[in-house]
Amino acid sequence: MIRFNNDYNHGAHPEILEALSAVNDNSFGGYGEDEWCKKAADLIRERVHCPDAAVHFFPGATQANFIVIASALSSVQSVIAADTGHINCHEAASVENTNHKIQTIPNTDGKITAAQIDACAGAYYEENEPEYYTEPKMVYLSFPTEQGTLYSLEELKAIREVCDKYGMYLFVDGARLGYGLGAVENDISVEDFAALTDVFYFGGTKCGALFGEAVVITSNDLKRRFKAFMKQNGAVLAKGWLLGLQFYTLLENDLYSEITKKADVLAMKIRDAFAKKGITFWVESPTNQQFVILNEKQQEVLGQNYTFEKTGSTPDGVIARFCTSWATTEEEVAQLIGDIEKL
Amino acid sequence: MIRFNNDYNHGAHPEILEALSAVNDNSFGGYGEDEWCKKAADLIRERVHCPDAAVHFFPGATQANFIVIASALSSVQSVIAADTGHINCHEAASVENTNHKIQTIPNTDGKITAAQIDACAGAYYEENEPEYYTEPKMVYLSFPTEQGTLYSLEELKAIREVCDKYGMYLFVDGARLGYGLGAVENDISVEDFAALTDVFYFGGTKCGALFGEAVVITSNDLKRRFKAFMKQNGAVLAKGWLLGLQFYTLLENDLYSEITKKADVLAMKIRDAFAKKGITFWVESPTNQQFVILNEKQQEVLGQNYTFEKTGSTPDGVIARFCTSWATTEEEVAQLIGDIEKL
Amino acid sequence: MIRFNNDYNHGAHPEILEALSAVNDNSFGGYGEDEWCKKAADLIRERVHCPDAAVHFFPGATQANFIVIASALSSVQSVIAADTGHINCHEAASVENTNHKIQTIPNTDGKITAAQIDACAGAYYEENEPEYYTEPKMVYLSFPTEQGTLYSLEELKAIREVCDKYGMYLFVDGARLGYGLGAVENDISVEDFAALTDVFYFGGTKCGALFGEAVVITSNDLKRRFKAFMKQNGAVLAKGWLLGLQFYTLLENDLYSEITKKADVLAMKIRDAFAKKGITFWVESPTNQQFVILNEKQQEVLGQNYTFEKTGSTPDGVIARFCTSWATTEEEVAQLIGDIEKL
Amino acid sequence: MIRFNNDYNHGAHPEILEALSAVNDNSFGGYGEDEWCKKAADLIRERVHCPDAAVHFFPGATQANFIVIASALSSVQSVIAADTGHINCHEAASVENTNHKIQTIPNTDGKITAAQIDACAGAYYEENEPEYYTEPKMVYLSFPTEQGTLYSLEELKAIREVCDKYGMYLFVDGARLGYGLGAVENDISVEDFAALTDVFYFGGTKCGALFGEAVVITSNDLKRRFKAFMKQNGAVLAKGWLLGLQFYTLLENDLYSEITKKADVLAMKIRDAFAKKGITFWVESPTNQQFVILNEKQQEVLGQNYTFEKTGSTPDGVIARFCTSWATTEEEVAQLIGDIEKL
C-alpha cells in the first residue's frame, strides 16, 4: 500500500536524521536558547532579506496558527479568513478557544480576494456602534491553500493594501510553503512574503522535517512578548535545538526547495495522468495536492494499492485527494500513473 | 563545560535514534492513529495493570499539564497545587489562560499533605455561598517534586482519600517520573499510580526521549472527548508515531527504568561528595536533582567547568541545582566529585 | 420626536416603579437570596407548570445569553444558531470570548429549520475524526426572532426532536418573549417552552421592566453550579430583589401579557397602514417589530417626527425598523399612521 | 430585625427613585448614548478635574473589576493585588476566567505597601527568562479595603511611583469610595484618585444608588475600545440612562458625599460603643465597616435584633462585621448602641 493520502506520513529527510545523530552526544541550552536555533534564525533572516525579523520555532502548525492569532489580537478583535481556512475547519475551534471570532469569507478554490476582504473589514467601520462588533484586525491566508491553489504576487499585494487601509495584520500559514514556492506558476518569493506580510511561516512537518514550523515575524508590534504566548500555550520545546537544527539542515543548502519542488513535479505527472484519462478535477491545483472526482469503480481499483483521502462528495463521485511529498519517489508515482492509465 | 544545569540538555538515548531511523522509510497514519502509538499504549496499559486506561502522547509537559486540567474542569472549578508546583511557577499562567484558578498551598520541601488539601477543599464546602468561590475539583502533585523530593505510598493513599471525600480528581505530573521510580527510598510503583490517580504521565523529554510525554487516564470521566482538547490546543502531533515509537522503545525492555535509575545513583554520588565536604543542602532530595547552597568562591570554582542552575538565594549563598540525567556519564560525575573534593 | 426605533427607550411600567418605591424602606438579603426573588421564581414555576425548574434573574440579555452557553458547554462543544442570531451578530463575540464556536446556519426570515439543524449536527457524527471538530451541543433560537418572526409549535417540536437525536440542549432567547406570546398567530405557550426547551427566558428589559431577564432552566444538567457561572461573569446583582420584585409585579396579574399583547396590536395597525400605502415589507412579521423598505423621500418625511432604525439597505431603499413596545400609546400610533397615509 | 450585615440591603436614596419617576414618560437613546449619561460623565470629569477622562457606567462592581482588568491586560500579563482583594476572594475567579493570573501579596489590615509591590514586580524583571512568567502590568487596590481601612495620600503616591517604575497601570476599586472619602482620617480627594490612578470608580450600589458603578479612565491606553469589552461581557445596559441619571442625582448637589459621610459618623458611634464595652476589634477601621470579635453569648444577644456578618473566627470568638450605609438611621444606631451597652 502506497500512501498518497497526505504529506506527513513519512519521518524526515535522511539528512535530518543524520544531523540529529551527529549532535546527540553534545549538550545544549534549553527552550530555544541554543546555537542551532540562533544559526537557523540567522539563516532565515538572511534568506528573507529581513535582518530584524524575529524567528521562532514551533513543534506544530495548529500551535503556530492559534498562538500567532492569540498574541496579535485582543478578545474584541477578530481574524478574517476563507471559510475553508484551516483555522476555521480543521483545528477544533482553537481560535475561538483563545477568545477570537473568525469572520469567514466564501472561498473560490480556497482563495479569497482583496475586494472581499475590503468589504468585510469596511462594514465594521461603517457601523454606527462599532463597539458591538469585533474589530477585524488580521487577515489569515494559507499558501498554498487547503485546495492546493496559490495566490499570485499581484493578489498578495492587493490584499496587503487592504490590510494597510484598515490597520490589519497579514498572516500567511505556510504549513506547505515549500510546495507553493516550488510550483511552476508561482511568482512569490520568500522575500516577498517577508516584505508583504506581518508574520508567516516555513512549514517543516510537511516539507521534510520530522516536525516543526519556523515562524517569521516582521511586524514590531507582534514581536514583543511573543515567546511568553508560546510558553503559555506549551509551544516552547524544552530541547529547542531539535527544531533549530532541522531548519538549519533544510535551509543551509536549500534542500527545502529541492525536495518540495520535486514533489510538485511528481504531482504534475499524476495530474497529467488523470487529465489524460478524462477524470474530472475538483479544483485546478499547481502544487502537491491533487483533487479528482472518482466514481465507485475508480475508487475501488485505486484503493487496492494506494491510500488517498476522501475530502467530500459530488453527484459524480467522491472528491479524492492525492498528495505527493518530499518522500514520494519516482517509482511510486510511476506505479500510480500506470494504474491510472488502466482505469 | 559539562552541563549539570538540567535534565533536558541532551538529545535522546541512542536506541531512540536508531528506532526512528529504522522506520524512516515506512509510512504511517497521521495524528496518533498508527501502529506504534497503539503498541506503546498497549504496553503501558499492561505495565500499569489497567487494561481500560486511555493513553495519549504529548509533545511536551506544559501542554500535558494545562490540557489535562482544561479538559477536566469547568471555569468555575479550580485545581489545588503546592505553591511551588510547576503549573503555578514555570508555565506562564497556562492554567489561568484556560480560565482556571490555582488554589495554592504552602509547600514543605516541594510537597503538600493530605491534611492541608483537606482543609483547603473543606473550606469551600463550609461556605454559606459556595457559588461565589471556585469548586476545588482536582489536586495536582509532581512526582518527583520540583525540589526532587518524593511522596510515599502512604502519603499518596491519604491524598487519594481526601480526593474521594470531596469528589476531586488526582493528577500526578510525572515529567521526571523515571527518576522518582528509580530512587532507593521510593515505594510507589506505576501500578500504584494507575490505581490511585485519575491521570498521570510518564515523562519522556527528561527521561531519555527526544521529546514527548505519555499521559495515562484511568478515570472514565476524563477520557471522553480528551483528544478534542488535545487537538484544540495543538497537542496532537501530525506524525504521532514519532512519540509512540519512542515510548515503545523506552518501555519495551524497560530501558526507561534502567537509565533513570542510573541517573539517581550518580546523583547520590554527587550528594555524598557535597555532604562529605560539609556543604549545606537546601533540601534533602533522593532523586536526580540535588540542591546545595554555594558561597561565591564555590560558585566561581565549580562554574569554571560545570553549568548548574541558580534557583534562588539564601543568606549563606545561592541555591545551586545540580542535575544528572539518563545522559550523564560516570566520567562526568567522577570529574565533578573530584572538583567538589578540592573546594 | 417619537421613538419607534426600539423597544427599550422608556423606563418601566408605572406599577414597577410603584413597587420599587413601596419596598424602598425595607431591607433584604443580598445576591438574589431574598423573598421577592423567591416569590417571583415560585410564580414562574407555577406558570410554566414546572415545579422543579431553576429560575435565575439576570440584569441583561447579553449576559443571559453568553452565561447560559458558557455554563452548558465545554470549549470543545459548540452552539448552532441562525446566522442572524443575536449571539452571532450583536453581542461583540461574547460567545467566542467564552471559548465557543457558533456554528451558523443560513436563516429564512430569521428562522432555521429542524432539517437544517439535523444536517449541521449530523455532519459532525459522520466525521472520521470528530475530535478535530467541535461537538454541536446546543441549539440557540430567538423567539420572536431578530426579524420579528415566530416559530410554530410544530416547528419547535421538530427542532426538539433533532436536539434529542443528537443529545443537544435547546435554548430559547426570549428577550422579546412577551411580544411573541401575544401575537395573534402564535400557538406556543410558556408551558410549551418549559416542556420543549432546556432553558429559555422571559425578557423583562424590553417588556415592561426597568431591566432584567428571568432565566428558566428545566434541564437538571444545566442547573448545577449555574449561579457560580453567573457570579463569575458579574451577573449576580447585589440587590437581587430589584429583579425579583419587577418580575413578580409583571407576572402576578399577568401585566406582562397585557402590555406586550397591546404592543402587538399597535404594531399590526402600523403594518396595515404601510400595507395600505403599498410600501414593501422586508419581512412579514406578526410581532412588535415591523420592517419596511423606504425610499429617500419617505425616510425624510417620516424622519421629521419619528425615529426608526435603519437595519440594512436594498436596491429599493433602506430597511427601516418600526418598533412598538409596552410604552407605546394609541396616540403615538395614530399620529404615525396619519403621517404614513400622507406619504 | 435591623440589618447591619452589609451596605447593600436597601433600595436607593429617595431622590434616586424620584428622579427615575420624573423621566419615566420620556424616551432615550439606548446603550449609554443618552443625555443623562452625558451629563453625569461631564459632571464627573469636572469633579475629578480631568476633562479628558472617559467615564463608563456599569451595572455592578464585579463586572467593573474583571472588565477593566480584561481590557487592560493581555493573557501573558497579570495583576498584583492583596491576598484579601475582592477580585481574589469573592468574585468566583472572574479574573482567571478572563485568562489572567492574580499575583497576590500578603495584606496587613487589608492593605499592601509600595515596597511589597516593588519586590513583586521587580522579581519579574530580574528573571533570566521572563517570558516564562506573566508580566505584572496592573496593581489593584480597594479603597476602602475589604477590611474598611484606608490608604493615605502618601501611600498612594508611593504606589504610583512603583507603577511608573515598572510601567504598570494603577486601578482602584471604589465600590465603597464614598465611605472612604467621608472618613475623618482620609486625606485623598477624588482629584487625587484621577491624578494618581489610571482607572478607578465611584461605587453606586453601596453608596445610595439602586445599582451601578461609574468607572473613570484617565489613561489613554485604556480608553480605546473599552466599550467593546463592556459589550462583550454584557455590561452595557440597554437603558443606560438609568445609570447616568442615578449618578447625576447623586453627584449634582453632592448627595453622594453627604450620605456616605453620615454613614461613617454612625459607624464611629458604633465603634465607640464597642470600645467602651472593652470588645476587641479585629481591625481598626475608620469607615462604615466595623469588625469586632464576639463570644458566643454576645453573638446570641446581639443576634436577636440585628443581623451582622460572620467573616471569620479567632480563638476568642467569631469576627463579626457591622456595616452602616447611606440608609442607616440615627435611631437604628441608637438602638444598637443601647444593646451593646447592655452586653
From TrEMBL, chains A, B, C, D:
Cofactor(s) required for function per UniProt: pyridoxal 5'-phosphate
Matching InterPro entries: ArAA_b-elim_lyase/Thr_aldolase (IPR001597), PyrdxlP-dep_Trfase (IPR015424), PyrdxlP-dep_Trfase_major (IPR015421), PyrdxlP-dep_Trfase_small (IPR015422)
Family: Belongs to the threonine aldolase family.
Highest rank taxon of the organism: Bacteria
GO annotation, biological process: amino acid metabolic process
GO molecular function annotations of the record: lyase activity; transaminase activity
SUPFAM superfamilies, alphabetized: PLP-dependent transferases
UniProt name for this protein: Aminotransferase class I/II-fold pyridoxal phosphate-dependent enzyme
